[in-house]
Hints:
The structure is a single chain. By secondary structure, the protein is an alpha+beta fold. It contains 11 helices and 12 strands. Strands 1, 2, 3, 4, 5, 6, 7, 11 and 12 form a 9-stranded mixed β-sheet that branches.
Amino acid sequence: MIITKTPFRISFAGGGSDMADFYREHGGCVLSTTINRYMYLNIHPYFNERETVLKYSQTEIVGDINEINHSIFRCVLNDKKISGVEIGSTADVPSGTGLGSSSSFTVGLLHTLYCYKGKYVSKADLAREACSVEIEKLGNPIGKQDQYAAAFGGLNFISFHQDDTVSVEPVIAGAGTMEELQENLVMFYTGITHDANQILAEQKHNLVKSDKTENLKQMCRLAREMKHSLETNTLSDFGAILDEGWQRKREMAGGITSSRIDELYQTAMENGALGGKLLGAGGGGFLLFYCPKEKQALLTNRLRLKPFPFSFEHDGSSIVYIGDKYWD
């Protein structure tokens, strides 16, 4: 058996600028970090080698991999020409919550299959191939940040260039700054799940509008400002940058926010939070706030939501276990 784990991410600023319709014209960038919440995948040869077994939120047993319902499984197993195996996936956080779970799954599946075939693959190649699967082959209206975050791990400034290349630059901040940032971030689950592709499709459509394009340009500026604040070990404006980014993001598409989310956000800002945002495409999932540690108890009490504990992660997609060698 082979087991891999691939982290989920939280994006601080610049989300949306990783979509091709924008970055091919203007260039894009995001600041994000991976966290210690993971997508786990395991694989081993199936007893009946004429069948392939997949276990996720459903169980599929097929004789032909073209019969697989799960689109990412079907696409990747076809590409790698792998069948006669049993693959299982489990996650610390469900899909539709804004932590990039779909791309973490794709990156993790590719990593698992390369390992199964006894082949080394770099983090950059994992991310590039995951983008190809999700965006080019499956036609999902998404960007590239989640795949690169999941593959590389850590706190990174990720740039999306007009020629479709991507560069990943680790953000170097003092240990004290990173500790302060970790302590002052608090995340809450709203209890609302969402369809990211539906929201992103509307956002993609809206990119032809000049006001939406200008919004994304300003969100890239915020990502660069946030990077500078970390590198100069000054977090005094971190919350304000988060807040401005959220105000701009919520204008990008109709489904990004709701009256309930707006109510929670306003309550947080009145009870200790200096800024925040809804993670992922929007519509539900997790709310992230920058709030001084000493005010977090008040914030939690007023929101009446349970904080979701997390810490920063630095490894990216990694191999947890390899059993006896059984590949050719």
